[in-house]
């Protein structure tokens, strides 16, 4: 963990270094992934089975390729009532939030008599990748699948690896809650390739979303254009902007909630109170000592954590914009005033009673968010990622007479005479 | 050109072949582009100058790196009045259409007392690529730059190659009309790398859009994630759905307006009238013979063109959906009825008086559209491509008491104790 103070002489250089630090895996898996993707595209299920046997150590023909709906329902029914209720609360709230994202169609007729507008439709099929192993999160399934369902996709496909044949019942339960149509026991680059190109068993989809390791991320990048994808995700991060009136224990827990995800995650505290900075740092140490995930969280905090002292919280906002973090907490009395000054963040958590973890599960907004400074240009996952827009245009003779001559002039200037002719013929001028 | 009839025994197989035909360049430029991108990232302007000298055959230090605003204004002033007016009409209408695309912020408080919503902001800087040479279209500059301006970007950068040092005055005039802030005389993969990573002279941008050759497309793919990009574009295509009451000459001109772009473009006519199919084919031949762009248009039509006979126009719509074309014209008396049956298309042109060319220039909707069946999942370029959404959330103590327990249950089930703790501490339960 580093400590910075905007008044230090070397602050600018050290903050630049913090902004530019790359935490993403440098492993070049491009070629390996290309081989896997090509194999699955060309050989279909046989390649899927072979890669699964090699990488996940089970034989799909023996363990089964799919988990059926009854098994997902049974997994849900077998949960503790408290957990069942929590999953349902999460799904209900995520659905409600995303229903407000459904885009409006538009249609209008302008002064020239041109009727024009845009129409949104859902893609036919969406594929959601849910990681296996440590990061097999049912919440991730809900956050990816529910926006697809709200968009109105006809077919919702879940793929999830089951290493050594072991199925995570929480993921199945979430698939039941999200009403997934198919659940396939495949993972890695081979699963992404199967979704993009289809195999004998698995029909191809139109959009692939969901987090994964370096192989999954590279596979998504390689099939981008064959299908739509969500943003390629990197390590997670949180920025907490907090004044001295906060409870240092609360803020320390927030910093650690990000750190415990992975050793590459980043937690940064901005505060205008040096004593609070000390207290928060001490609280982090104290909490780490009893945290079951302390090995991961300690490495992330020590390697990537930072506390930045600023003259006022408002001074922090341009610095936060440079980081363009995935999550930002604004823990102060007037968080809206700070939020109004902020331009780049994936998701903002306002006030002292809004820990980021609430947004990970049940609040409603999506937890699939741009990382690695991509909030400068990217948005969290949403309903429109599973939809597309068709623009439309309708002219009558009068409208064409009004717009036609300018079209002909531009088409001719661009050296496209057939374009000009298609208009000129209709204007009944002889060209 | 092939002719198909849905009643033919081999129709399904032949239509499948039409759908699956790849018209995109198979040239693998991945490694060459990676070398260029790395050089520009590491060596900046020196690499830009070297690549431009080699590939565009002029020395930027001698010919100049930038075109200033005065030169763009002068290029505009020097145009024929008719062309000047046409560019201004186009810009005005494109702006008006895209202003309606500006997304609405949302904020609401739900029954649990949670305040939540989403806020849209423009990216800081956008870079627009405008090809040089044959495809140096001022309309492309307007279609990319105006949505960025409407989104509210602070800085709008145009890059365009000037092979052998020759500047296209129409592009400069369009840069003036679109109020570009900077115009740089660079192209190819090196220009995309400069926009993504920045150089000594050129500050990096956040989003890069615009068409280009295989090198430009691959460079965009390689910098995707460092910056946002628009969809990687392939060869253009048009589907015309027309009944026998159309003027065959009009429809032939529409088919050729797509064919003249490039030998890889595709024009397909669906009709329910065999005699009209013959008349349209004959009209295409007749028009080709006098078309200045006939070499290109003839190759495209002969290699990729098709006429498909269907029992009724309604029967064509599922077939059109399989093609998911960039452009579709619905030339009949009740085009809306057909449009209602259509799901996948980049842009639709309704009725007999709406040739696609109108949409290329002055109608208002964007002409940067998904190609190669990507309309299944992708949309045309729009204002939101230059904006991003920040979701936000604010809970008070009461709301946290309502949502907290479910969050704790899910966090513990996922093995994330610091997540649970960040909520539990605030609920003042001792965990």
From TrEMBL, chains A, B:
Gene3D superfamilies: 1.20.5.1300, Nitrogenase molybdenum iron protein domain. InterPro entries: Ald_DH/histidinol_DH, Histidinol_DH_CS, Histidinol_DH_monofunct, Hstdl_DH. One of its GO terms (molecular function) is histidinol dehydrogenase activity. Zn(2+) binds at residues 258, 261, 360, 419. Substrate binds at residues 236, 258, 261, 327, 360, 414, 419. Its cofactor is Zn(2+). It comes from the Bacteria. Catalyzes the sequential NAD-dependent oxidations of L-histidinol to L-histidinaldehyde and then to L-histidine. NCBIfam families: hisD (TIGR00069). This is Histidinol dehydrogenase.
């Amino acid at each position: 963990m580093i400590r910075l103070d905007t008044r230090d002489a070397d602050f600018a250089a050290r903050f630049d270094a913090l902004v530019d630090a790359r935490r993403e895996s440098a492993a070049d898996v491009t070629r390996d992934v290309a081989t896997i993707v090509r194999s699955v595209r060309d050989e279909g299920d046989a390649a899927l089975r072979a890669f699964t046997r090699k990488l996940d150590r089970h034989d799909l023909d023996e363990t089964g390729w799919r988990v059926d709906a009854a098994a997902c329902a049974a997994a849900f029914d077998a949960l503790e009532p408290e957990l069942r209720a929590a999953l349902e609360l999460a799904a209900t709230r995520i659905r409600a939030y995303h229903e407000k994202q459904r885009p409006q169609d538009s249609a209008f007729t302008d002064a020239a008599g041109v009727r024009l507008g845009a129409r949104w439709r859902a893609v036919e099929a969406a594929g959601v990748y849910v990681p296996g192993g440590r990061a097999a999160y049912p919440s991730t399934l809900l956050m990816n699948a529910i926006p697809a369902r709200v968009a109105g996709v006809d077919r919702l496909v879940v793929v999830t690896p089951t290493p050594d044949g072991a199925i995570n019942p929480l993921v199945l339960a979430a698939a039941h809650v999200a009403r997934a149509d198919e659940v396939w026991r495949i993972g890695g680059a081979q699963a992404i390739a199967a979704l993009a190109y289809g195999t004998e068993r698995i029909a191809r989809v139109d959009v692939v979303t969901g987090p994964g390791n370096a192989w999954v991320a590279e596979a998504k990048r390689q099939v981008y254009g064959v299908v739509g994808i969500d943003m390629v995700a990197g390590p997670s991060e949180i920025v907490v902007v907090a004044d001295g009136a906060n409870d240092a224990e609360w803020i320390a827990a927030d910093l650690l909630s990000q750190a415990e995800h992975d050793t590459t995650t980043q937690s940064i505290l901005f505060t205008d109170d040096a004593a609070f900075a000390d207290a928060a740092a001490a609280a982090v140490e104290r909490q780490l000592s009893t945290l079951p995930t302390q090995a991961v969280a300690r490495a992330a905090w020590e390697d990537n954590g930072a506390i930045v002292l600023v003259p006022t919280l408002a001074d922090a906002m341009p610095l936060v914009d440079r980081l363009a973090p995935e999550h930002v907490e604004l823990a102060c009395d007037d968080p809206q005033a700070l939020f109004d000054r902020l331009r780049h963040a994936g998701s903002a958590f306002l006030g002292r009673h809004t820990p980021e973890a609430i947004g990970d599960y049940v609040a409603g907004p999506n937890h699939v968010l741009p990382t690695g400074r991509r909030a400068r240009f990217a948005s969290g996952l949403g309903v429109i990622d599973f939809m597309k827009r068709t623009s439309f245009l309708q002219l009558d003779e009068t409208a064409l007479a009004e717009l036609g001559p300018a079209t002909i002039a531009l088409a001719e200037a661009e050296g496209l005479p057939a374009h000009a002719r298609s208009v000129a013929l209709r204007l009944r001028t002889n060209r």
